[in-house]
Amino acid sequence: VSTQSTGSSGINAEYGVDCSEEMLSKDPETSVSRVVLALEAIKATYCNKLISGSLDHIAVLLGGTETLTNDYPGIHVLLPLDTPDKTCVDVLQKASRDFADGKFQWGHSQVYSPYHLLWTCNSIYTSCVKKLGTRLIMIFTNVSEPRNMDTKTRQLATTKARDMSELGITISIITLPTTNSENFNMDKFYSALVPDHEITNPTNDIEDLSQRVHRRESKVRMTASVPFVVGPELTIGVQCCNLFGESAAKHISLCSKTNEPVVCVSSVVRETDRAVLLPHEVHRSCKFGAETVVFSQDEVDQMKVRSDKGIYLIGFKPRKDIKTHHVAGKSLFLRPTETVYSGSTSFFVALLTRLDARKMVGLVHCVPREGTAGYIGVLVPQLEERDEDNEQVRPMGFHLIHLPFADDIRKLTYEPTEQPSSAQVEAAKSLVNKLKAKQFNSSLIENPCVLQFNKTLEAIALEKDSIEETEDSTKPDVERMNKRAGIEMEKLNNIVFPAGYNIPDDCKKPDYKRVISLVQNRQREGTLAKVGVADLRLYCKGVRLKVSSTAKKGDLLDAIKKFLG
To answer: Sign of dihedral through CA atoms 100, 116, 8, 141?
Structure first.
């Protein structure tokens, strides 16, 4: 198998779909075959990568076909390893439609082995010119033990999977619902290919299946591997990972004349003769009394270093002593690694479970990189959590939270305000209890603007005639709220705002309607200059006219006249 892919440092995934008779059979409830379910999930993955501008490479292979694209029978490469585009989505959509209609243009063959599929996937990876980044192989199947698997073929598949694992290729099995009453059993064959595979419940939902594929692809990126010094004679290895982070915007300076990127070069020159100084010739000084002490750059760097790279355990504290305002920076997530220190995982799990059982946290001094001063942090344990489908929701590990120093904590002074009465507090509590949702998960409510933006990108990328509208789930259900807690809302409103209550002027909303009407009338009469600066600024804010915060009255008048034409 040859491919034109030149490699990528991102994610490279190959999806193998088992096209055996069990996979081609339709589900009695949904009337959709397992092959169509797998192809639809793969198509959703292609669409997500297409609209996000991902540089990942994906390939799709069909197992159990008569059409051959390599030296082994029963394997057909539907899509070669390449970046997703509209053509790939069309090919997947056509293949899904053909399988749904019972049209098998590639034929059906009983001569199929997972060994042939693994060999073909490996040959696709080895044919790439450049070095690849993360390499994944996902096999969609509902057959616990493939047919025609003799002892020799089983041994070849196991050896091939072990060799690919040593090369850094991750193999994963996506299980689909079986055609009989028996559940999918990994121990019959696939446990030998993937010893540490997580057993999950099969699903018939395309969206749920595509989310599982996305979770298998998304790997936690390790930022550093550091030693965890527990005591004088006990050290284990841990990895520091970022669970989330803000995407930094990259700014590029361009030349105003040529529009070419500008390269900034900074140099240090001597004041007397303007000679350019080398880095080792630059020194820093500090005045102590009557003497001026000079330090080289190496000496300044050594002053910042208090200890070697690593995490040093100081002691333990009750978890209740750690407050929300104690978080001084972005946290890290720690998990064990056996790369340097064997037995790290066993001690790591034992320490985590005991701290969680006793509701304690670890106090540590963290130096994540060489040449840094480090900081004081706490290790908050987190046990593994799985959902009803046995999919991992939360991983097991420690959250390393950056604590502030005493100088970083400031006491703020607030102006005294009027405190609510006990009747108002009780009325508010009653309202909150009435509107409290029993099973609420904020992660299930998606941003409608982001959803609509992605739908627009998808329509442009796939050249659709219309844009699919998205439902805004953030809007409150006023009718349902009034039906459920209308009496409590009315009671709280009467207690807080009784009859004759005067709203302070600083709490009133700006009267944009009056100001807009005033400015338009003055513009028609030619007396716009008589409008005050406060009303002019309020008008600009009401019509979303951008003006400088330091603009004078003349600048405001010019901007408004230009806006009104």
So the answer is: positive
Q: Which of 105, 115, 39, 40 is nearest to 70 (CA)?
A: 115
392: three-class secondary structure by DSSP: strand
* Residues in Cβ contact with 561 at an 8 Å cutoff, skipping those fewer than 6 apart: 523, 528
Exposure string of 434-445, with b = 16+ CB inside 10 Å and e = fewer, is: eeeeeeeeeeee
Q: Which two tokens stand for residue 470?
A: 């998205």
Q: How far, in Å, CA of 142 to CA of 21, rounded? A: 10
Q: At what angle do helices 553-564 and 533-542 cross, to 10 degrees?
A: 40
Quick check: 402 and 326 in contact, CB under 8 A?
A: no
The model's pTM: 0.62
pLDDT at 3 over 50: no
For 471, the token pair is 């439902």
Contact 115, 151 (CB under 8 A): no
Spell 209-230 as b/e; 16+ CB within 10 A means b.
bbbbbeebbeeeeeeeebbbbb
Q: CA 544, 550, 553, 558: dihedral to nearest 10 degrees?
A: -50
Tens digits of residue pLDDT in 198-255: 666 666 666 777 777 776 666 656 777 889 999 888 999 998 888 776 666 667 888 8
Long-range contacts of 431-435 (CB under 8 A, 24+ apart): 431/485, 431/488, 431/489, 431/491, 431/492, 434/484, 434/485, 434/488, 435/481, 435/484, 435/485
Contact 34, 79 (CB under 8 A): no
Q: What is the DSSP letter of 225?
A: E
Which residues are 380's β-sheet partners?
A: 399
Smallest CA-to-CA distance from 217 within 150, 125, 135 is with 135
Q: Are 317 and 361 in contact (CB under 8 A)?
A: yes
Contact 105, 63 (CB under 8 A): no
Residue 138 β-bridge partners: 15, 172
pLDDT tens digits along 319-351:
998 888 888 888 899 999 888 888 899 999 999
List alpha helices for 65-205, DSSP H. 86-100, 114-126, 151-166, 190-193
Which residues, at least 6 apart from 140, have a Cβ–Cβ distance to it below 8 Å? 15, 16, 17, 18, 23, 34, 38, 41, 174, 176
CA-only gyration radius of the chain, Å: 32
Supply the pLDDT for residue 469: 83
Q: Phi/psi zone of residue 148: left (φ > 0), alpha (ψ -120 to 50 degrees), beta?
A: left
Distance in angstroms (rounded) separating the CA atoms of residues 388 and 181 = 19
**Residues contacting residue 563 through CB under 8 Å, at least 6 positions apart:** 543, 545
- Sign, CA dihedral 254-255-256-258, equals negative
**Angle at alpha carbon of residue 29, lines to 25 and 31, rounded to 5°:** 45
